[in-house]
From TrEMBL:
Its EC number is 4.1.99.3. Keywords: Chromophore, FAD, Flavoprotein, Lyase. This is Deoxyribodipyrimidine photo-lyase. FAD binds at residues 223, 235-239, 270, 384-386.
């Protein structure tokens, strides 16, 4: 009987335990479902939809080389998986686990259905080195602070990555229905804003492995210093590939461990950044409302200027906040590092980590705009938009999160630029009009807005 391997956030052929299990059974068929209907599943942002389109094309090729056809379907995943398994007379169903609450509920329902139908179903650990429930404090609860979390997980073992399965004999029966990818409308049209994304990325495992090899050879040794420099190619740029599972964290750690004896502490710092990724998922698993609720409830009373809440002023003030938001989104705040970052984001779907922190801090603390508004903008525009890392990092910057940056740490975009882009190369690359009269004056007084933010914070209930 043929097996089904259901692909989700694991769009790769290597280190894919579900694919291997299906292939070992004999004839395997792969299924991807674009689910925009099941309750609680967060709809993908625009840049993510672009990434997904190209990733599915790449995955189809990678799987074809292994003799595994890829079916594409859109709709409620539970119904489609059932329908496909029934139409094929499948004996087994395999997938790699997801950790969002809505996704887990959906998967549990399918597992129960498979059991009742006498079908074998099995799920695997593939996208996190340590599953969120496997890591607990001494008291048995979730971690709230990164350092003890990292102390605990960095001492734990994890498996080696798996090879892709050998090309199999292929599925010889009649394939069930599959849709044309082009009919899904994942690519932007009217206007098509994706040219900069296409210049910057080739979604798929091939580029992921190239970037990984290059980074391990050339970037890792100096990573601890260069990672903070947006003017240098100092970080790995693996985030979208990890987000979509075109590369697994097991593959990344394995490649990196071969280089453990490099001088400097690049490898250790890099491992701990991957640890942050795991910590974000740990938080999201324990707080499924991470993108919509302050982890520190005192922040529910913060007088945001936008969107209107307790602190909303008269109409004029609200309109002004909307203008400020647009200036931030479009890279016209008059703070070069922030504007360069926002333009880099719009053009390439990615922004350097240091600049993400500076830009998010300006939005939340100087412009007084709710972190959720920024989180949603990033969700729509990042190719690595991640349901755990994005809200966790926004809450970290805002001060409302677990182990958040202390509120008084308000990044000054000017001193940050002087320190991390000392020759102005990064801002120069993204803001050609920087030294002309066309470049706007700062939209906010840093000192006064900082004071206001600290006062607002001081008034929150503890
Ligand atoms: P590297 O420095 O090479 O790090 C290697 C990998 O470690 C990254 O690819 C990523 O998977 C992980 N990582 C590094 N830093 C973090 C971090 N702070 N939190 C979680 N994982 C991390 N990262 C996302 O993957 N998706 C997001 O949606 C996202 N949103 C963010 C929003 C804000 C406001 C901020 C401040 C940070 C956000 N980050 C997010 C974290 C970080 O900025 C990116 O992971 C990083 O810039 C990716 O570049 P890189 O692959 O070159 O990273």
């Amino acid at each position: 009987k043929p097996s089904i391997v259901w692909f989700r956030d694991d769009l790769r052929a290597t280190d894919n335990p579900a694919l291997r299990a299906a292939a070992e059974d004999g004839a395997a068929v792969a299924l991807y479902v674009l689910d925009e209907e099941s309750p609680g599943i967060r709809p993908l942002g625009g840049a993510s939809r672009w990434w997904l389109h190209h990733s599915l094309l790449a995955l189809r090729e990678d799987l074809a080389a292994l003799g595994v056809p890829l079916l594409l379907r859109r709709g409620r995943a539970a119904e489609i998986v059932r329908e496909t398994a029934t139409a094929m007379g499948s004996g087994s169903l395999y997938w790699n686990r997801r950790y969002g609450e809505a996704e887990r509920t959906l998967d549990a329902g399918i597992k129960a259905w498979a059991r009742e139908s006498g079908m074998h179903s099995e799920s695997f650990q593939a996208s996190l080195l340590h599953e969120p429930w496997a890591v607990t404090t001494k008291q048995g609860g979730p971690f709230k602070v990164f350092t003890p979390f990292w102390r605990t997980v960095s001492g734990l073992d994890f498996r080696d990555p798996l090879e892709a399965p050998e090309p199999g004999r292929g599925f010889s029966g009649r394939l069930p229905e599959s849709e044309e990818l082009d009919t899904w409308g994942l690519l932007p049209r009217n206007p098509d804003w994706s040219a900069g994304l296409a210049e910057s990325w080739q979604p798929g495992s091939a580029q992921a492995h190239e970037l990984l090899d290059d980074f391990v050879q050339h970037g890792l040794a100096d990573y601890s210093v260069n990672r903070d420099r947006p003017d240098l190619p100092g970080s790995s740029r693996l985030s979208p590939f990890l987000r979509w599972g075109q590369l697994s964290p097991f593959e990344v750690r394995h490649a990196q461990q071969g280089r453990r004896r490099e001088p400097g502490d690049g490898a250790a710092v890099f491992a701990s950044e991957l640890g942050w990724r795991e910590f974000c998922w740990h938080q999201y698993f324990h707080h499924p409302d991470l993108a919509t609720a302050n982890l520190r409830p005192g922040f529910d009373h913060y007088p945001w200027a936008w969107p209107g809440g307790q602190g909303a002023g008269p109409l004029g003030e609200v309109t002004e906040a909307a203008d400020l938001l647009r200036a931030w989104q479009e890279g016209r705040t008059g703070f070069p590092m922030v504007d360069a970052g926002q333009r880099q984001l719009w053009h390439t779907g990615w922004m350097h980590n240091r600049v993400r922190m500076v830009s998010a801090s300006l939005l939340v603390k100087n412009l007084g705009i709710h972190w959720q508004v920024g989180e949603q903008w990033f969700w729509d525009t990042l190719v690595d938009a991640d349901p755990a890392s994005n809200p966790a990092n926004w809450q970290w910057v805002a001060g409302s999160g677990a182990d958040a940056s202390p509120f008084f740490r308000i990044f000054n975009p000017e001193t940050q630029a002087a320190k991390f882009d000392p020759d102005g190369r990064y801002v120069g690359r993204w803001i050609p009009e920087l030294s002309t009269a066309d470049y706007p004056e700062p939209v906010v007084d840093l000192k006064a807005s900082r004071r206001e933010a600290l006062d607002a914070y001081g008034s929150l209930p503890r």
